Amino acid sequence: MVFLRRRSLLLKTLLAVPVIWFFVAVLYSTSDKARGRGPLEPAAAPPPEAAAIRQEQHHAPGAPEPPEVELQPPVVVENQPDAPGFPEPEQENEISKKEEEDAGAMGVLPLPNGNNKYGEMGKPVVLPSNMSTGMKKLVDEGWQKNAFNQYVSDLISVRRSLPDPRDEWCKKEGRYQSSLPSTSVIICFHNEAWSVLLRTVHSVLDRSPAHMIHEVLLVDDFSDMDHLKTRLENYFTKYPKVKIIRAKKREGLIRARLLGAARATGKVLTYLDSHCECTTGWLEPLLDRIARNSTTVVCPVIDVIDDTTLEYHYRDSGGVNVGGFDWNLQFNWHSVPERERKRHENSAEPVWSPTMAGGLFSIDREFFERLGTYDNGFDIWGGENLELSFKTWMCGGTLEIVPCSHVGHIFRKRSPYKWRSGVNVLKKNSIRLAEVWLDDYSKYYYQRIGNDLVRIF
Ligand SMILES: *[C@@H]1O[C@H](CO)[C@@H](O)[C@H](O)[C@H]1NC(C)=O
Ligand SMILES: *[C@@H]1O[C@H](CO)[C@@H](O)[C@H](O)[C@H]1NC(C)=O
Q1: Does residue 347's CB lie within 6 angstroms of at least one atom of ligand 2?
Q2: From atom 7 of ligand 2, which residue's Cα is the shortest distance away?
Q3: Fewer Cβ close by (within 10 Å): the C or N end of the chain?
Q4: What is the rounded CA–CA span in Å between residue 217 and residue 184?
């Protein structure tokens, strides 16, 4: 008996060792995870595939890699709300409902706690670090869905004020032609956050001379979020210029843009992403260039709206960059070359740009058609910005960045959207771009991708 009992004790001990080891190991790995993912930084630690996604993101809505300097928002304490005054989760819905009702009738919506208007004049909104668990959860969900801080965006008026980022040169009497053409503004979106999409549209309507806005076409690329269905239609019934066009299946950026172009009837087409804010006087300098010569394709300066605080960052025209590309056929930014600088007396004058970032530009509708719009063999997204840039220059047009025109854009660090996998769409489009427009130079691209063309077709 004694022997037997001792043997079972020995057995138990032997069993216990791996079990304890297992528990310790599990404990370690979970506490590691908990440490690695703070509630406010889901985008700060991107997954390994982030590099690829980042490219997609910056290609897709045309959003460029922003110029590397001054992207870290300065620590601004102004407008930093005191925690107690912060609306708790329950109130959040009320705010957007109320905002929805008021936004049409009046200007900026005063928030419940009186005169603290979050994000006015483009100021950052910094959430308190001791948020309640419920609020933290909402903040996390907003990041998950959008890859920017939706919670903060929802706190900010959809008609918030912004600073006027223009140089004095831009505001001079008679700077622009007195009679400018009107434009169709085309905004494509897929599952965009309510407050961000509305802010984009209101910034267009509020900061453009009414007679220059022929219409605003919202092209819904098959969103499935509820707020983008009848709620969106109801909201915009008060705004007859705003029309909603629905894709019948997921089309991708390029075909969604073409869907918008096919319906547009303005003399000029102006494309914007669905997470932008236009500033005072953004439109006139763009339309002026096209009025002077309809083969001029123009891009505003793209300012950075911080993805965490929604702070609006801008620089004067001395910091303007032009678009280029590398032999991976990736868009990139360059400072204005010396020879181009010499062509101008003032740094606020429009500058020639080899390429465009893609998401934000104006083009004469007939000229766009003459260029054959986008190559309809291009799929979903990617490369279309270079295609249009090359065509513009090679078919008798001019591509310019217009420093007097500023539009803010939320730069995301990852794409929140899912795409069917298996096909490298960007690469397929880029090979098509190289074949059609690069002639002998295509070999440099093929070298970069290791002449790996086979799997694409
Ligand atoms: C957060 O901190 C502030 C000041 O430090 C305090 O007034 C507030 O009550 C705190 N809120 C919570 C939910 O703990
Ligand atoms: C418009 O610009 C193009 C390209 O620079 C030029 O060839 C053309 O002559 C210009 N047209 C007019 C009417 O100035």
Answers
A1: no
A2: 396
A3: N
A4: 7
DSSP H or E run through 242: strand 242-246
Ligand nearest 82 Cα, by number? Answer: 1
pTM here is 0.77
Q: What percent of the chain has pLDDT over 70?
A: 72
| Cα separation values, 89 from 99, 114, 134, 160, Å | 16, 18, 7, 21
Distance 56 CA to ligand 1 centre (A): 40
Distance CA 198, CA 208 (A): 15
Does ligand 2 have an atom closer than 6 angstroms to the CB of 394?
no
Backbone angles phi, psi at 64, to 5 degrees: -80, 165
Q: What is the rounded distance in angstroms from the CA atom of residue 81 to the CA atom of residue 127?
A: 7
Model confidence at 280: pLDDT above 50: yes
Contact 112 CB / ligand 2 (< 6 Å): no
Amino acid in position 69: V
- The response to whether residue 398 sits with its C-beta less than 6 Å from ligand 2 reads yes
Secondary structure of residue 210 in the 3-state scheme: helix
List the one residue out of 101, 183, 222 whose CA is nearest residue 361: 183
